[in-house]
Amino acid sequence: MILGGGFGFFHITKNIVPKGFSNLYVVLGIGFIFYLILNSPDNKNKRIFNSVIYALAREKETIKSIDRKNLIKEHNDEKLKSEIFENLSRKEKKKYKKEQKKKKIEKTTLDLIDILYFDNRDYLKHKKGYIEILEIIPQDLMNLNYENTLNLIQKNSYFYMSYQQDIKIISMNFPVNFEEQIQYFNTLLENENNEFKSKFLRLKVNELERLQETRYNKEFFMFLFSQNEVSIEEDVNQVLRILPGLTKKISREKKEKILFKLNNMNTKI
Predict the structure, then answer these.
(1) What CATH topology corresponds to 110-176+215-263?
(2) Average pLDDT over residues 178-190
(3) To pair with 95 at 20 to 30 A between CA atoms, which of 37, 81, 126, 246?
């Protein structure tokens, strides 16, 4: 009935348009009528012309559109969620599924850091294997004689030729620790009765405290990487055997400070 009535209306009124466009006017009009009788994507079991009527007849000041997809998010009852989802139109269902696929959980710091924990031997458990950190003992190259310098070069050359695993050498600035010296002078100060000597002891303590806040030592470390806990032990022993007196193990506390500094570059250890 709607198609027939629409065809009759546009056939009668085609004379109001220029003669060359009358047939196009009728075709477009029938196409528009055909579009109006299609199923509405926003109103279940209704036609598009029903949606147009609802849109024209609604009280715009009091009626607000409700996003039914948000109703699913607001409820925790799975049964109620499924009922709301079934009442969505095909377009809304498709859009809701697309949004759920795109939804991602934000990564936390634990997801971004590859270090997992320390094992019982204080090796670092990495997501892809194990890591050990050795300290490189600096050498005073300016004061070494020719034979010692040559020996040092040969040791390093042999190390790089014989050790095949991955390594990484880094340098870091650590604050100078004068706690033992400060404690020593404070003990002397407590037992000193001479005011003149006490004055210089206090000056010494203040000087050490100031140096401890401002002075840093540059230290060097070697990271060893391995895929399993057996090979990491062998790699550590090999490095210590090839470079005796040039590398040494460090405490777990020192390793924690290194990791903290690597992940917080602008902070003071």
Answers:
(1) Alpha-Beta Plaits (3.30.70)
(2) 90
(3) 37
